[in-house]
Amino acid sequence: MNKDLISKIKIFEEKIKKAENIIILPHYNPDGDAIGSALGLYNILINYGKNVSVVSPTHFPDFLKWMPGAKKIRALGEKTKSDPNVFTDADLLIGVDFNALNRISNVAVRFSESNAYKILIDHHPDPENFTDIIFSDTSYSSTAEFVYEIISNSFLKEFLDKNVATCLYTGIMTDTGSFNFNSSNPNTYLVVAKLLELGINKDKIFDEVYNSFSVNRMRFMGHVLLNRMIVIPEMKTAYIYITAKDRKDFKEQFGDTENFVNMPLAIKGIIFSAIFIERDNFIKISFRSKGSFSVNDFSQKYFNGGGHINAAGGESHTSLQETTKKFVDILQEYKDELINYSF
Ligand SMILES: [Mn+2]
User: Fold this and answer.
1) Are 339 and 236 in contact (CB under 8 A)?
2) Which of 114, 117, 148, 292 has the most C-beta neighbours closer than 10 Å?
3) Rounded distance between C-alpha atoms, residue 72 and residue 138, angstroms
4) Is the Cβ–Cβ distance between 87 and 110 less than 8 Å?
């Protein structure tokens, strides 16, 4: 382990020991890695006897609600922008799985104004400097894997148990699409081996996360694949659009459109996929790619977003139709890069 990481872990240990009230924060609309990392830390700090809570800027998906500690998560909403008390009593804030203040939009101001000591643990590229220390390393599959690395090299190691391991495994599993991407680093499997030794039931975790759809969600998916997916084979690209009416017709529940964006990548020859969802005030966008084509760059440049090389988010404030037209027009500029992509 490098010196820098060792010295940061020392600070982490000191701050944990000293803290009287710790709040752990995932990003808004948290995914399995954000909640898994937050609850992994939460459970180990509970085991150590700390006063700790997880505050999520927004709701989190039902398929994560079985996780140990999930019922204790305080999920906020946009209204909390005006709640001055969110972090009042905390003397240590730990952000997980985000690299910029705007990823906790509705509590960003409260977070920066808080006098608490701030730690960030993340694996996204180019983190902003808004905490006292940053654990940032893109070589980890997931923030959960990084959290394991930190706690297993600290005094907290002795408080690792099955609950902690279950949460961290969920983070690694979901951020790698069950070890289909983001998971070429051997360290990921060394960590998974350690988590298995702690007694996790990996088959059950998979079942809880992935086999938990409602009938409506399955029919919604069928509709989307049949009627809302546009394939552009000469660009090795496919995209999906979802209208506000679609969401209403299929009684969309929070999290229902999760993973839709990955589906076109299952088509032979498709290496770039996008989804455009008509939300109440804007178009929510996600991008996925295979190999060398960077959706992080693509989204940063044209759709006010970012993320990782193969997975990124974005947004648009024009109509759904205009947004997809813009997307298709821009694609032309990337023709060579798309056709000559490499794994
Ligand atoms: Mn992550």
Assistant:
1) yes
2) 148
3) 30
4) yes
Query: Residues lining ligand 1 (ion), CB within 5 A?
Result: 33, 97, 142-143, 175
Degrees, nearest 5: CA angle 130-134-140: 130
CA pair distance 263, 225, nearest whole angstrom: 8
Q: How far is the CA of 289 from the centre of ligand 1 (A)?
A: 16
Could you count the other beta carbons within 10 Å of the beta carbon of residue 74? 11
**Residue written as tokens 């996790």?**
200
Model confidence pLDDT, tens digit, residues 318-341: 999 999 999 999 999 999 999 998
Cβ pair 175, 33 in contact under 8 A: yes
Domains of the chain with CATH codes: 3-210 (3.90.1640.10), 215-339 (3.10.310.30)
Q: How far is the CA of 234 from the centre of ligand 1 (A)?
A: 32
pLDDT at 194: 98
